[in-house]
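Box 3.1 A note on notation
Throughout this textbook, protein chains are presented in two layers. The first layer is the amino acid sequence; the second is a token string describing backbone geometry. Keep the layers aligned when reading.
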Amino acid sequence: MEARRASEPESGAVSAAVREHLRALCLREFPCGAGSWVRAGAAGGAGRGKDPGRAWLGAAWARGDWPGRRGSDPGAERQFGSGHRCSGENKSRFLPQTWRTWRELVPREEDTVSPGEETEEALLGLVRSHHSPWALLTDSSDEDRFLRELAVQNPLVLKDTFFYSYFRSLRVVDEEVSHVDKDLLKFLKLEELVLSANRIKEVDAANLPPTLKVLELYSNEIRSLQCLCAHPPPHLQHLGLGHNKLRGPLESLYLTSNHWPNLVSLDLSFNDLTDLQGLMVNLRPLRRLRLLVLQGNPLALVPYYRGFTIDTLSRLCVLDDITVSPNEKHQFRGLSLSGDFLACEAQLVVNLGNVKGVLDSSVFHSEPGPEGPFITYNYYVTYEFMEEEEVREEEYMGVLAEIVNPSPSPELFVKEFAEESVEEAEEEVSLESGTAESAESESTLVSAESVEVPGSIDSVEELGKLRPRMDPRLFPSPGRVLFSTVHMPWAEVIACNYEMQHTFKDLVLLKAFLLTGTTVTIVEEKIVSWSLVPPTVDSPLPAKKGKGEKDQKGKKEKDKKGKDKAGKEEKEAAKERKWHKKKKELPKELRQDPPILRVLGSGPVALEPLLSGEPMVSTECNFGVIRTLESDKLTLARDLKKLKKLAKKEKTPLPAVVSDEDYSPQPLTVELQVQLSQSRSAAEALRASAV
């Protein structure tokens, strides 16, 4: 037992996973194997019983039922013959020429089967039927199905020597394999080895069978190709190393014709390779290379990637699963000679289109008074993007979202804002009027509802309890910048018409950003404004004058009293008309409170298709319905007042009234488009690099 355990491969090895897979096939258990359930004398069971056909022939010969032994019909002997004379004297077409043909033509007797036994056909039916509880899974390989049927038909063949000589393909996928052991060399005819989705960090190439033609190591933890180049299989035609951790310019040194002279297909997708020109220099000597996959690497994000690769590898037929056309070869001819003039940077263009389904919050507010509050609403869209280290905020030309400018720490900003609110509250307490209005004007920076500031000094502790918390959706993730569109008033369709070009030199960080994606947010900005009322100043009383002067002034006033009475009434009427006119207009000087920001909708957007070869990600972000029937009725009632005047002049029909039955609100959506810049010709690639 100890010797047997010592011979077994250790856990994590490829051979151990193969043995465990064969054990899971249950080749020696029902309905496979040579157990007691197999009927004696069944096909493939040599030595289990007599042949029933041979037994029937012997019994028929003993009873005299065999043709030629019946004495009643002398013509029968002449017809069928007897012994060896039939073959030389009678050429009847009814007689078989060999003993084997006789056995096939003789009908067999129905053998009795005991309750504990099964025929070979019944056992094969249990193995092949999809409804059988012993059937294999639907994704099982053809080799597994063949072994199961062979275990029913001839189970004695299944030995270690058979397995080592039978397998030409081994697929060990997602079996926690960590290394390739030397027992793999026992597979003498192995041509295909698939070890994907495991935990392999290094591959000892000395343990790979020399007969290998296909080697796939997808989704492992391989960091360097150096381990494979020690003893590479000489006849290898396909090497799959996608979704690993290959990184650095030195990896291209292990992809030369000295190591892989017969390589036809190479897959290095979704690694961290960045040196495109160095890789092309080493792949050019591979004369038989026809298929190459490099998508998902940072080097594939540069605009000239496809053209430079096609022009360098002139024998290439397929690049990133797309056939190389003759037109592409013509368009990018000569680009490989200008590799030193090409900039190693990627460019992405972001476009934000129409915003629909926005709730108009202004319909819930009544008309403001002469002193306010005057409430206005603006709407804008923000999106996260990776921050380029060399670009400063001033170079973004005012497209950064304002909410990231106040303070890098949300708690610190809230604390400072709370202290300022207390100071303003203390100043407002000393005034005789406007205390309630001042308390109502104090609001949070990001909350959807206003938080009233207490109007006395004793309520500072209470103000601390009401300290607002920042909405995390209004702040970018670490290492990212929040970009914003222009703040625009409400409309049924808000046209952003936003376009921004981003340039990145750190391609590895850009790949990580594209894998995680971005976040798009629609924000409502509420601004409350108040009129500035200057404090009333009492004019000083004039000094007392003498009695004579008073008498003279009184006489003059009596004379002018009658003349000025009519003019005074006209001035008062004009002032009253003027005051009513100014009441409808906004005051020229207003005091604005900090804006109140509310997130109307926010959601992630996947950008991984840009790594998979797609040139553009175009989507309409849908954040659901935020409108209500009540809000739409109020909006329609407000708009009808304006449209009635226009309808009289232009005779345009008025919109229909919203009913409960036909109400179908528009969801909140925004159009987003992110495009990866790609050159279409050699001239375009050189022109873009020069700019």
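The first helix runs from residue 2 to 7. The longest strand covers residues 518-531.
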